[in-house]
């Protein structure tokens, strides 16, 4: 099934991105990374995140872990929102701790390092594959029907019961 047809609930997004539910909730409430599939509508409703949302969550986590300010992370996330889905996989994000730079070729990375500006980089393609691998072991949800998609563990009784109840 195509990744655009699958959504991930909060706990699954947290597990794949390596963040806490508290971080996820805060980032959604403050607009840093909002779920693009289904936002929460009051108490008891479940947010549903797309694959791309989970990739962005993991990128935000990596930026925070390296000390980039939340203000600069917000700017970078806004930039990522404006980019095409396919573009993310080929992008490298570099930062000197104060500013985030986008590089789409090895020459741009080299030029940035030569200028003494880049201190660390995030190869978005690597994050992409990490998230893909993590989500393949977890449960997704069909966006159109709400059916729980069971990962490779067929012994998961709760997911089987959810599918029977639908």
TrEMBL record:
Domain HTH merR-type residue range list: 16-79
Gene3D superfamilies hit by this protein: 1.10.1660.10
Name of a matching Pfam family: MerR_1
Signal sequence bounds: none
Keywords, ordered alphabetically: DNA-binding
Domain of life: Bacteria
GO terms assigned for molecular function: DNA binding; DNA-binding transcription factor activity
Name assigned to this protein: DNA-binding transcriptional MerR regulator
